[in-house]
Design a protein that fits this description.
- This protein is an alpha/beta fold.
- The two termini are 15 Å apart.
- The chain contains 16 helices and 13 strands.
- 43% of the residues lie in helices and 16% in strands.
- The protein has a seven-stranded parallel beta sheet with strand order 3-2-1-4-5-6-7, with helices on both faces. The protein has a six-stranded parallel beta sheet with strand order 10-9-8-11-12-13, with helices on both faces.
């Protein structure tokens, strides 16, 4: 089977997800990967044994308009696909060009992984939402990362038998690109990690309200906030707090392992969510997770096994859950090991690739 994997994203978990999937799929099929030459992990793509085709993309909406109108990259993709003649086109993460590629490849079955079936509060954009909807309806099969959002697509009218659930794989990639030697996590250093881009829906305000309660029970507790985004809405909550370490910037791939190696607990106090790449990353480092019962996150965290689940917008519950793990090293270690086993065995990229191959075969059947 010939699979054209097209991932044009540049930063974040998307290119990482795509690289892991490409490696696993290449063991089972003939894979041709079309990627952005501006991808943050481009050197890892180049160093792999994968067959890749690089194209220039863009960095912002203005560049998107000029690059799209110029057509150079889109034409290059068209020619490369025409030469490869794929049986299936697989897009691991939706991109603004996904719909355009769909228009000039009408006869080829398409699989699209949707990471965010419903846009988060504050991220809605009429133009981007339109391109997303077009990409969805161009697809032969859709892959979601959790069961929670299957009804969202069905409500839109997308056929239920064309929706597949493939959980996120184990994000061990960050260990391989780190300059630091990966260690077993230090469960007794009372360091809580909040990792990723800072948006209102991620509930940082809830965590900042909970942290003084945590410190009352665990006086040496530290909170590390690592990620880019505006901290302006949280200034009042931050004022006067001690024990908080701020890394308010984009965290490069090579730095990620350092933050997880130095943590004893990862916290996701989200108010709403789809699912999170932070959770399989935490599991790869054998870290327990405290998260809220929201979206697909509640499928990723097995309550009382790989971590603890609490209600959204509840600083009290969040604090109590963190304290219960921080004060019990054996519990933290057990949850960390359970998460690692879950990610390694049930969420392995090999297992996910096998299921994706089955989806490719369904695509071909649907097109016959």
């Amino acid at each position: 089977m010939k699979i054209a994997l097209i991932n044009l994203g540049r930063t974040g978990a998307g290119p990482v997800y795509a690289l892991e999937m490409a490696k696993a799929l290449s063991q089972k099929a003939d894979v041709f990967s079309v990627i952005s030459s501006q991808a943050e992990n481009i050197e890892q793509w180049r160093a792999s044994e994968l067959v890749i085709f690089e194209v220039d993309t863009y960095k912002n909406l203005k560049e998107f308009v000029t690059a799209t109108l110029r057509l150079k990259s889109l034409l290059a993709i068209y020619k490369a696909l025409n030469k490869f003649k794929p049986d299936v086109i697989y897009t691991p993460m939706i991109h603004l060009w996904t719909a355009f590629i769909g228009f000039f490849t009408p006869g080829i079955p398409k699989i699209l992984t949707i990471h965010d079936p419903a846009q988060h509060d504050g991220e809605q954009n009429i133009f981007i939402d339109l391109l997303r909807e077009i990409s969805i309806w161009q697809s032969t099969q859709i892959v979601l990362l959790s069961e929670f959002f299957r009804p969202v697509l069905i409500k839109k009218g997308f056929p239920a038998d064309r929706i597949n659930i493939l959980p996120l794989g184990k994000f061990s990639y960050y260990q391989t690109v780190s300059a630091d030697e990966v260690e077993n996590s230090r469960y007794d250093n009372a360091t809580i990690l909040f990792f990723g881009r800072i948006y209102e829906y991620k509930g940082l305000d809830t965590l900042l309200k909970a942290f003084p309660m945590i410190r009352r029970s665990v006086p040496d507790a530290q909170l590390v906030i690592a990620g880019n985004g505006s901290l302006e809405p949280y200034q009042e909550l931050l004022q006067g707090q001690s024990g908080i370490i701020m890394e308010n910037r984009w965290i490069a791939d090579g730095e990620v392992a350092t933050f997880f190696n130095n943590a004893s607990l990862v916290v996701l106090p989200y108010k709403e969510s789809t699912q999170s790449g932070v959770i399989p990353t935490a599991y790869a480092f054998k870290l327990p997770v405290v998260a809220t019962r929201t979206g697909g996150v509640q499928e990723q965290v097995l309550d009382h096994q790989t971590g603890l689940l609490v209600e959204p917008n509840s600083p009290q519950q969040l604090a109590e859950a963190c304290v219960s793990i921080l004060l019990n090293t054996e519990l933290a270690k057990s949850m960390g090991n359970n998460g690692y086993r879950l990610a390694t065995e049930e969420w392995s990229w090999e297992t996910t690739a096998d299921k994706l191959i089955e989806t490719c075969l369904l695509c071909q059947k649907n097109m016959d």
